[in-house]
UniProtKB/TrEMBL annotation, chain A:
ABC transporter domain location: 4-234
Protein name: Carbohydrate ABC transporter ATP-binding protein (CUT1 family)
One Gene Ontology term of the molecular function aspect: ATP binding
CDD domains the UniProt entry points to: ABC_MalK_N
Keywords from the named record: ATP-binding, Nucleotide-binding, Transport
Gene Ontology BP, a term: carbohydrate transport
Taxonomic lineage of the native organism: Bacteria, Pseudomonadati, Pseudomonadota, Gammaproteobacteria, Oceanospirillales
UniProtKB/TrEMBL annotation, chain B:
Domain of life of the organism encoding this protein: Bacteria
Signal peptide: none
GO CC terms: plasma membrane
Name the record gives this protein: Carbohydrate ABC transporter membrane protein 1 (CUT1 family)
UniProt GO BP: transmembrane transport
Membrane topology per record: Multi-pass membrane protein
Subcellular location per the Swiss-Prot or TrEMBL entry: Cell membrane
Organism of this sequence: Marinomonas foliarum
Family named by the database record: Belongs to the binding-protein-dependent transport system permease family.
Entry-linked Gene3D superfamilies: MetI-like
Primary residence: membrane
Membrane-spanning intervals of the chain: 21-45, 73-102, 114-134, 166-188, 220-237, 257-289
Length: 369, 295
């Protein structure tokens, strides 16, 4: 295992920049997830580490080796591809040991690794089959096995679960997390799925348009997104952003006046320099007032008209209007709200985030939230 | 093909096979008239002594025993085997190399892809004259380059006039004329090889040669087998290229032609040669249908 360092890495096709000045250090044994919408440069970044794309500018290091000029087959990496990329003419067994053999492992090691990997991924019954005779989930496991059998410095995953159905995806996500902890491997994992990012990553890198928007642990990203893009991209349903006027020390929208002084880590002097701000409230942080225990840091949104209720079993999603915009709240099964009803919901002001109204929408709360 | 059918509904399969029968019916009729009847008549003739005026005398197996006792027959088989080995290997290797080259990205690639096909589309008779001129002992460019420019030898040679060297000229000519069809088949398949297979192989530690060996070749093996078998089948019967360029190269079809239409005309023996050749071809076609198409 090794660390991976990307230093001022740029990638462009002709004049079109794809990755802009990216800096990232993946520590030894760390699982880092690159997440972002399609076209954000996350796959390109991964492929530069793999050596499948050349680096326009900057440096990539694996361990202490600069690998810019090394072809992929000399980088000692393993990779799981989105479409599995299994060798169709080889059996599952041959697919798994192919890279291991090439790396010069002796017969005994190969045998042990194969037994190890096939047991862990439950492939024992399929070893003699060809990839064409396997289901999507089984192929995915073989692709994982082929990577894990290798004694690579770093393991790369390029949206490995995106071709699986929802149930299998969940299962494999858990498997990957388990394997990663067991092997303590250095891994870079690319996905557009924020749930995979949140559940798998030791750290998550949120990218947009070739730029890193934020790097942090899943909880940092969830609780303290640095701007409105990260705030709305991570978390489902997306964070509600409501434009509010600053009047004295209050944030005003509709008939509500939120006391800014009670919102965590807000510099009141700085706040007063703005005319308007965006108030960010995650749907998860709304509570049915009828069920919440009183606290002086709760703000109550009374007289909210429920437009729609989506029952998801334990959770239900409530759709309503806030500041003239569509807003969502997630309540649990204890509340019995119905469509067209008027209800009160409360929010812990410690959980409220403020963003400026610039195009970037930067976070105004400072320090721990 | 088989894989796909498994997923297709049985109703659709039935519909499709009925349509298929209707579509091949005219072709089957024409083949019956133009191929099956002559073949049967040919087998019939091979048991007769046939005169040019049309009189036939039944001779039983005599044509066959004559043939099997004729050293010229074995010689022509030998020539055909060399011709087949040379042309099949030549077209396959050159076609594969050209396909791999043309599968790379470069400027004017489409133009180059088209130009490569030219020998295949050029009429045989015109390019044959060109080739004969190249090897002309007095005015040909070949002798000019070898003798006058490079001084490799002192004597001008008539490569086409000498049957031994003419065989190699004929082989090179066939490779040049027919490698584009191998190239076309290879290129079509190469373009459908998933890119990520190469990427996976690179990450598994394979350099360019290893990727060719472990990805390209296995992916191409069906097409390679097809090209090899089709080229054998076609070239076992190849007449016009050889006869027009160097009629002194006696491959099996040329030998058959001489038996049937030149010198001492013996159409019964010619028919017997064809029957034996037919059996070999049927064997090859059986191999193709049973083995190669099943991959």
């Amino acid at each position: 295992m090794s660390s991976v360092i990307l230093r001022n890495v740029n990638k462009s096709y002709g004049n079109l920049p794809i990755v802009k000045n990216l800096n990232l250090e993946v520590k030894d044994g760390e699982f880092v997830v690159l997440v972002g919408p399609s076209g954000c440069g996350k796959s390109t970044t991964l492929r530069m580490v793999a050596g499948l794309e050349d680096i326009t500018q900057g440096e990539i290091q694996i361990g202490s080796r600069a690998i810019n000029d090394l072809p992929p087959h000399k980088r000692n990496i393993a990779m799981v591809f989105q479409n599995y990329a299994l060798y169709p003419h080889m059996s599952v067994r041959e697919n798994i040991v192919f890279g291991l053999k090439k790396s010069g492992a002796d017969a005994e090691t190969i045998k042990e690794k194969l037994a190890d990997v096939s047991e862990m991924l439950k492939l024992d019954d399929y070893l003699d089959r060809k990839p064409a005779d396997l289901s999507g989930g089984q192929r995915q496991r073989v692709a994982m096995g082929r990577a894990l059998a290798r004694d690579a410095d770093v393991y790369l995953f390029d949206e490995p679960l995106s071709n699986l159905d929802a149930k299998l995806r969940h299962h494999m996500r858990t498997e990957i997390a388990r394997i990663q902890h067991q092997y303590n491997m250095t891994a870079i994992y690319v996905t557009h799925d924020q749930i995979e990012a949140m559940t798998l990553g030791d750290r998550v890198v949120v990218m947009r348009d070739g730029i890193v928007e934020q790097v942090g642990t899943p909880m940092e990203i969830y609780l303290q997104p640095t701007n409105t893009f990260v705030a709305t991209f991570i978390g489902s349903p997306a964070m509600n952003l409501i434009e509010a006027k600053i009047e004295g020390e209050d944030l005003v929208f509709d008939n509500y006046r939120l006391p800014a002084a009670k919102i965590a880590n807000v510099d009141l002097q700085d706040l007063k320099s703005h005319d308007t701000v965006l108030v960010g409230i995650r749907p998860d942080f709304f509570e049915d007032s009828a069920l919440s225990s009183p606290s002086d840091n709760l703000f109550e949104f009374n007289d909210i008209q429920v437009e729609l209720v989506e029952n998801l079993g334990f959770d239900k999603e409530i759709m309503f209007k806030l500041g003239g915009e569509d807003a969502k709240a997630r309540l649990d099964l204890r509340s019995h709200v119905k469509r067209q009803e008027n209800i009160s919901m409360s929010v812990d002001l410690n959980r409220v985030l403020l963003f400026d109204t610039s195009p970037q929408g930067m976070l105004l709360n400072t320090g721990e939230v | 093909m088989q894989k796909r059918e498994e997923h297709m509904s049985s109703v659709l399969i039935k519909n499709e096979s009925r349509l298929g029968l209707k579509l091949v019916a005219p072709a089957v009729g024409i083949i019956g008239l133009l191929v099956i009847y002559p073949i049967l008549f040919n087998i019939y003739l091979s048991f007769f002594d046939v005169q040019l005026n049309g009189t036939k005398t039944f001779v039983g197996m005599e044509n066959y025993t004559d043939l099997l006792g004729n050293p010229r027959y074995y010689h022509s088989i030998g020539v055909s085997v060399i011709y087949l080995i040379g042309t099949v290997i030549g077209t396959t290797v050159l076609g594969l190399a050209a396909a791999i080259l043309m599968n790379q990205e470069f400027r004017f690639r489409n133009l180059a892809r088209g130009l490569i096909l030219l020998p295949y589309f050029a009429p045989v008779i015109s390019v044959v004259f060109g080739w004969q001129f190249i090897f002309d002992p007095v005015n040909g460019i070949y002798n000019h380059v070898v003798v006058d420019v490079l001084h490799l030898t002192d004597t001008r040679e008539n490569l086409i006039g000498n049957p031994d060297s003419a065989l190699f000229v004929v082989i090179v000519f066939d490779i040049w004329k027919h490698f584009p069809i191998a190239y076309l088949l290879f290129l079509a398949k190469l373009q459908s090889v998933p890119k990520d297979l190469y990427e996976a192989a690179a990450i598994d530690g394979q350099n360019a040669w290893g990727r060719f060996w472990h990805v390209t070749l296995p992916e191409l093996r069906f097409v390679i087998a097809t090209v090899v078998l089709l080229r054998i089948i076609w070239n076992l019967n190849r007449f016009e290229d050889v006869y027009l360029l160097a009629p002194n190269v006696e491959t099996l079809p040329i030998f058959t032609y001489y038996q049937a239409f030149a010198g001492i005309v013996d159409q019964g023996v010619a028919a017997a040669i064809s029957v034996i050749q037919l059996l070999v071809l049927v064997g090859l076609i059986w191999l193709y249908v049973r083995k190669v198409l099943k991959w």
